[in-house]
Amino acid sequence: MSNLDRRPAARELGGLEETSAGPVLDLLPGKEVQLGESTRVRRLLPTLGRRMVGAWAFVDHYGPDDIASSAGMQVAPHPHTGLQTVSWLLEGEVHHRDSVGSDVRFGPGQLALMTAGHGIAHSEQSPAVHPRCLHGAQLWVALPDAHREVAPAFEHHATLPGFASDGLTTTVLMGSLADTASPGTTYSPLVGADLKLSPGADVELPLEPDFEYAVLAAGGSATVEGAPVTHGSMLYLGTGRRTVRLHADEAATLLLLGGEPFEEQLVMWWNFIGRSGEEIAEYAELWNAEDERFGVVVGYDGDRLPAPSLPAIPLKARGRVR
After folding, report:
1. pTM score, two decimals?
2. Where are the domains positioned within the chain?
3. Cβ neighbours for 128, distance < 8 A, ≥ 6 positions apart
4. Which of 59, 64, 105, 63 is nearest to 86 (CA)?
5. Residue 32 burial by CB count (10 A; 0-12/13-18/19+): exposed, middle or buried?
6. Does domain 11-259 have CATH number 2.60.120.10?
7. Model confidence over 241-272: pLDDT tens digits?
């Protein structure tokens, strides 16, 4: 799942200005966004007041949606540059195809990690015969300058490491947490973890004080450091924390996202991340010209998505928050 907005706003990301120098509890408002004809999502990053958490630059949460009588997710081929997509399902199944030849179906608990680097194209669809419910998150990680031109690649990890204690079951998607490391390739210090809380769970989880963190309530509701986080909302925790306390009266699933504050300034527009407006304009022109930079998605039956018109105002890279 990607940004299908036909009038996307320019997002200026990165830099350490206004990064929290200590722990905070800021609830990030989500925005309802229509993707294609059949899927609505809650967009939590970038959002009013905050554009990144570590290298995490984009967070969409969707579902649970009953798609028994519909086609479900249908996202035509589109391009990416300068980022990784991290696809995480709680329910359902997605069929991923891309221009490096990947043709993979993945489901809950499996990591689908695509590194765009220099440039890639992909499509995402619910299979013709699919489970009744679709529920998950689509996340982007910005690549640092030293790696943003890396060759495109796709990884599918059907099993992931984790640990369990005191009513908490943790699966590490990206990076490492409590000495448990994901096999997913990373290019900057970060972490992504699925936290499943049993009813009545009250636990403390170790954190890195140099990281900034946010917690997304992907399923159910919980309290994080005493602050309520309801389904579909995300709480920004800032930096300087060595632990985080989690409590749930009911079964809940949280996504913990964190990383070292991203020092570089970026421009994110549509499905591209670059360092200047000129770069973004070039990416859009090359995609619309069907340049070989992005390759071809083989096996998709239908047209690809054209890049929308660039905004009238210049695209410039600035700081991390509005």
Report:
1. 0.92
2. 11-259
3. none
4. 59
5. exposed
6. yes
7. 999 999 999 999 999 999 999 999 999 999 99
